[in-house]
What we know:
Layout: E1 15-19, E2 24-26, E3 29-31, E4 34-37, E5 40-47, E6 50-53, E7 58-70, E8 73-75, E9 78-86, E10 91-93, E11 96-103, E12 108-110, E13 113-115, H1 118-127
Parallel strand pairs: 1-4, 2-5, 3-5, 4-6, 5-7, 6-7, 7-8, 7-9, 8-10, 9-11, 10-12, 11-13
Amino acid sequence: MFGTKRVTVNSGDHVGTLIGQGTQLKGSITATGALRIDGEVEGDIVTSSEIVIGETGNVKAQIKAKNATIGGTVTGNMEISERLELLASAKLIGDIKAGTLIIGEGAIFKGACEMRSVDEKKGKESKN
């Protein structure tokens, strides 16, 4: 009842790009749809949707996305406009900016965190 339970990282049925386990990618990724990474990525990642990094995912990148769910390892800064969730198996080394942050028990986070309210984001966008 109170033991550790294995959490599966599910991104739903709308994954636009999948980088599978055993795949290595170096370079920049720009997408409009959801990304799921179960392999290794080094570079920059930008998506206007969500990114899911599975338990086997190992990412060394600067990441910008609307939502993110991390189950694997991320080394780099993250800018998430809405919701960032670190699952129990997650390891994040880098600074984050997020609207909402959820850290599961057992997750590792080393870095600075800046929380942004919806009003702050709207004000910033109207100034640009």
